[in-house]
Amino acid sequence: MNRLDRLTAILIQLQSKRIVKAQEIAERFEISLRTVYRDIRTLELAGIPIMSEAGIGYSLMKDYRLPPVQFTTDEAMAFFTADKILAKLGDTQTRKNYESGLYKIKSVLSHREKELLDDANQYISVVNNPYVPDSSNAKLSDILQAIIDKNVLQIRYFSAQQFEENSRKIEPIGMYNQSQYWYLIAWCRLRKDYRNFRLDRIREIEKLPVRFDKKHPTFASFLTQTAKVHLLTKIVIRIDKDAYRYIGNQHFYMGFVSESLVDEQIEMIFLSSNMQGFSHWFMLIGGEADILEPAILKEMVLEKIENVKVRLHG
């Protein structure tokens, strides 16, 4: 990217957020902080009203706006691809809002770019997965608004552990998507602790007029903690090549990473946070597969085999 294009991109970045740190600009364009300072100074000399504060970052003077900019073909395609993905992962209201915004984006595209998007529509699709719950009723936008406004939520939640429904009042903190499932992190007033709620298990949700003023830890800290709790274990197995076709798409839900052909077997590598769950799945293919690592997985499977023998003979 030449310097003129970078200066334009930096100006657009400054307009996209209230505060932009110099380090953010440096990381985005892979340049030094000294170069960032020079670029900012160049923009200031060109008459751009940039305000800066040591240790905080840069911002544009209030009400300063750039005229509409022309999107590149790659940027337009990225918006189009995001639209396809959001159509499957987002809730109904979020999809409508994005679609409305996308119409505005398309309105400033060139005639050639509009034709390109229309033509690309027939070549890309995100197919429904019958094993993953539909997100259309997840009410992501309502929950996000409750997080911003600090409203208490009343939910009716199905607990997979107790296999029962119960009513809870929660203080929502943030949401994240993992393995095609949406999760809500919140302070549960019933359990007096922080909990993760899978959105497809929330049967009903109501935003109460009550607001909470409890100071919760940052959402980023919860994501870090979640990663620590769900430690990933590397698993390596080999399945006979003739039997590989029987597993279908099941391995994609078990933390699948990669596969390669080794002699007459397919070696498969997984990263799993649920060894017990993986051992249950392995029982389905155990007659045609071997476990290379870890050793504890072999012990789990052998224990399950013994339990099956006992139950069959009981």
Automatic annotation (TrEMBL):
Question: Entry's PROSITE patterns?
Answer: HTH_DEOR_2, WYL
Stored InterPro entries: CBASS_pafABC_assoc_protein (IPR051534), DeoR_HTH (IPR001034), HTH_11 (IPR013196), PafC-like (IPR028349), WH-like_DNA-bd_sf (IPR036388), WH_DNA-bd_sf (IPR036390), WYL_dom (IPR026881)
Q: What are the residue boundaries of the HTH deoR-type domain, all occurrences included?
A: 3-58
Q: Which GO terms describe its molecular function?
A: DNA-binding transcription factor activity
Which Pfam families would you find in this protein's record?
Answer: HTH_11 (PF08279), WYL (PF13280)
Do the record's keywords include Transcription?
Answer: yes
Q: Which UniProt keywords apply?
A: Transcription, Transcription regulation
Name of the protein this chain belongs to: YafY family transcriptional regulator
Task: State the species of origin.
Answer: Lacihabitans soyangensis
Write the lineage as a comma-separated list.
Bacteria, Pseudomonadati, Bacteroidota, Cytophagia, Cytophagales
